């Protein structure tokens, strides 16, 4: 059988055989690309392997789109594979999985918003000061009472004109021990009040007021609501290049912004990166920007493998609150066994609330603007296709809609109490505590004087009865009997000696008054 060797013929003219797509040149012939590989165009010397996370079980594949991503529940860690491996029931393997994971993505919505302002102050500090101060002052007072300096307590007495309780007597200035004790109590209370007020003034004295106002009102105060905007689009299990080595977006990735204005000195950047888990992250940042009506961000990916198992969006803005941001994170996962690809975009809807901040305190900026971001309506997933339908679909589109509210958040921070207010309140409080201490001192001292006066009367009565007993029964002798006394004298004797106090005194001694009667 005769045949013509084209290699010799073409070589004579300086030409070579160009193998067709799906084949490669080897040993003077064109051979089919094996399973797990492909070749595009003419004149291929080798076949290109399908990347990890994909497979090709056909010979002579002519395009990399014939390297299909591993279906849901399967994975492949090798390049040039003709099949995928099944994941265990404990592993998470969406479409296009390179290596199985122990986590499971969910369509969660996370939000970070500015909170009510709280100073960096531990309320237990003031409580501890009050407790320890009370204990210290109590020990000081007890130390005076049980020491040899007990008598000097009266010299602390500030209530020298409040110790007279008989309206028939003239006012006499004097110092007493009870007055000194209650003066020390007043000193303790005043010390705690002053210390607590100082702590409150320096560490917990900022008041924040938040209100919602019509946007047209605040637009009279500022020309635009400037903010720093960061938008991140995460494409889960994205199967193409996504980025260059310098973290720039790949050639066929387009990001378009609508109705986003830039202020003086503003800047914007767009960059892309892809991690080892095949998550393509596209980031758009804009510093000192503002929004016109209906801002929008569009992402269009036109690479050969532009499909993903999930789309997650993170939007972060400066919220005008100095130490806070406003951020929201929303995600979509493709239906089981499908990926996001096709003409209908995956759409996300957010609301931007303008915010305006003012402060009269030197610790904060005098004024700032920003936005609070929140989700408006649930996202629309857009087009989804199964793995075996990828040859009929192209492009992955994501749209982000940002709506502006007709109301704005106004935040104002100001000092809660100025130094004059604190001093005035302290003077009033200290005067009130001093008066209250004086009232308790008078009540206690009045009760003490009443008890002491009663004891003095009882002591004198005991002495009278004891002297009477001695005179009747020791000096006049036992021959004197009751029967010999007049009736009125007998009754008096019976009264004296039937009195419980007399019995108590007589039961102890007949010559001196017992301690119980003093």
From TrEMBL:
Q: What SUPFAM superfamilies does UniProt report for this protein, alphabetically?
A: Growth factor receptor domain (SSF57184)
InterPro entries reported in the protein's UniProt record: Growth_fac_rcpt_cys_sf (IPR009030)
Q: Which Gene3D superfamilies match?
A: Tumor Necrosis Factor Receptor, subunit A, domain 2
**Key words, A-Z:** Membrane, Transmembrane, Transmembrane helix
SMART domains, per this entry? Ephrin_rec_like (SM01411)
Q: Which organism is it from?
A: Stentor coeruleus
Recorded hits in PANTHER family, A to Z, give: INSULIN-LIKE GROWTH FACTOR BINDING PROTEIN,N-TERMINAL, KERATIN-ASSOCIATED PROTEIN 16-1-LIKE
Any transmembrane segments, and where?
129-146, 178-203, 419-443
What is the protein name given in its UniProt record? Tyrosine-protein kinase ephrin type A/B receptor-like domain-containing protein
């Amino acid at each position: 059988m005769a045949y013509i060797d084209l290699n010799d013929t073409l070589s004579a003219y300086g030409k070579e055989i160009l193998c067709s797509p799906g084949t490669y040149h080897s040993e003077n012939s064109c051979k089919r690309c094996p399973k797990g590989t492909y070749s595009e165009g003419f004149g291929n010397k080798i076949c290109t392997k399908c990347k990890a996370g994909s497979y090709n079980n056909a010979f002579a594949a002519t395009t990399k789109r014939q390297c299909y991503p591993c279906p849901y529940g399967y994975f492949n860690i090798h390049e040039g594979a003709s099949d995928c491996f099944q994941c265990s029931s404990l592993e998470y393997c969406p479409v296009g999985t390179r290596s199985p994971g122990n986590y499971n993505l969910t369509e969660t919505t996370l939000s970070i918003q500015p909170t009510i302002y709280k100073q960096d102050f531990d309320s237990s500090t003031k409580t501890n000061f009050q407790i320890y101060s009370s204990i210290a002052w109590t020990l000081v007072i007890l130390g005076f009472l049980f020491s040899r300096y007990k008598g000097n307590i009266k010299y602390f007495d500030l209530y020298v004109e409040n110790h007279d309780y008989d309206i028939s007597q003239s006012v006499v200035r004097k110092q007493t021990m009870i007055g000194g004790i209650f003066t020390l109590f007043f000193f303790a209370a005043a010390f705690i009040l002053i210390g607590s007020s100082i702590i409150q003034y320096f560490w917990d004295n900022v008041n924040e007021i938040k209100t919602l106002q019509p946007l047209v009102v605040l637009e009279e105060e500022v020309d635009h609501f400037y903010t720093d905007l960061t938008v991140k689009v995460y494409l889960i299990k994205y199967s193409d290049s996504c980025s260059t080595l310098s973290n720039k977006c790949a050639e066929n990735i387009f990001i378009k912004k609508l109705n986003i204005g830039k202020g003086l000195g503003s800047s914007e950047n767009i960059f892309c990166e892809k991690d080892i888990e095949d998550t393509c992250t596209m980031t758009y940042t804009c510093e000192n920007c503002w929004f016109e009506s209906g801002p929008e961000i569009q992402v269009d990916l036109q690479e050969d493998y532009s499909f993903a198992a999930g789309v997650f969006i993170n939007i972060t803005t400066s919220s005008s609150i100095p130490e806070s941001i406003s951020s929201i994170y929303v995600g979509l996962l493709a239906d089981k066994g499908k990926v996001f690809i096709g003409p209908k975009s995956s759409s996300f809807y957010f609301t931007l609330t303008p915010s305006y901040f003012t402060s009269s305190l030197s610790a904060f900026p005098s004024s700032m603007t920003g936005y609070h971001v929140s989700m408006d309506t649930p996202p629309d997933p857009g087009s989804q296709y199964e793995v075996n339908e990828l040859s009929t679909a192209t492009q992955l589109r994501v749209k982000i809609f940002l709506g502006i509210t007709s109301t704005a958040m106004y935040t104002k921070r100001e000092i809660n109490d100025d130094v004059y207010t604190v001093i005035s309140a302290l003077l009033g409080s200290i005067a009130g505590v001093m008066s209250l201490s004086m009232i308790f001192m008078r009540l206690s001292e009045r009760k003490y004087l009443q008890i002491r006066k009663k004891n003095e009367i009882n002591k004198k009565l005991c002495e009278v009865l004891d002297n009477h007993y001695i005179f009747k029964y020791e000096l006049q002798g036992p021959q004197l009997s009751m029967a010999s006394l007049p009736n009125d004298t007998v009754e008096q004797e019976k009264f004296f000696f039937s009195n419980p106090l007399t019995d108590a005194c007589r039961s102890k001694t007949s010559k001196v008054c017992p301690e119980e009667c003093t």
